[in-house]
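Re: that chain you flagged

S.,

Sorry for the slow reply, it's been a week of failed gels. I finally had a moment to sit down with the sequence you sent. For the record, here it is as I used it:
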Amino acid sequence: MSSGYDLLKGLKVTFRELFRKSVTDKYPKEFREKPQRFHGRHVLNKYEDGMEKCIGCELCAGACPAQCIYVRGEDNPEDNPVSPGERYGFIYEINMLRCIYCGLCVEACPTEAITMTSLFEMSVTDRSDAVFDKSVLLVKEDGSANTHEEQTKLTNPEELTKIDGWMRATAPNGNPDFENIVGWTNTLGYGERAPEKGQTLEEE
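Prediction finished late last night. Pasting the structure tokens below so you have them in one place:
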């Protein structure tokens, strides 16, 4: 008798849940909206004049706790400089299999050359395809990010359009005096990015 009662009790819970709205997304038909500072795949940005922002200083590689970044800088050619500085990033590679998406490389970069998109769903058939070099990381001539679909399979390429997914804070240390002040340089294809919404000064 008790087993029959327990069965009916369990079915009651089952039928009740059948008519409730699902809390899960219909993935991959529907994608969750990512927050502004979501940590995804990296991009190397350019200035509005087309010059690369990376100066090959290797600070991002030094700050990376996963040691997944390899950078080698070289002197800029005098007749055709690649970046505004004395040096540029001749080799830039990121092993995405080792990356932990912490964003420390973005914080360490003095020229805001490297930022992070909203893309994190990638799959490869060969481990070597997960090592992205400048041909993948560097933005195109119009400032948009490379899709690199020839070497990796992407679930939602649209997430690459948010190439400023992780930028420096507008209000460092929560200081409301920095609200609405742009804290970064202009970028190819996007110009001056709008500042983040900071904290608001309390009315006296």
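What I noticed first: The CA atoms of residues 85 and 190 lie 22 Å apart.

Talk soon,
D.
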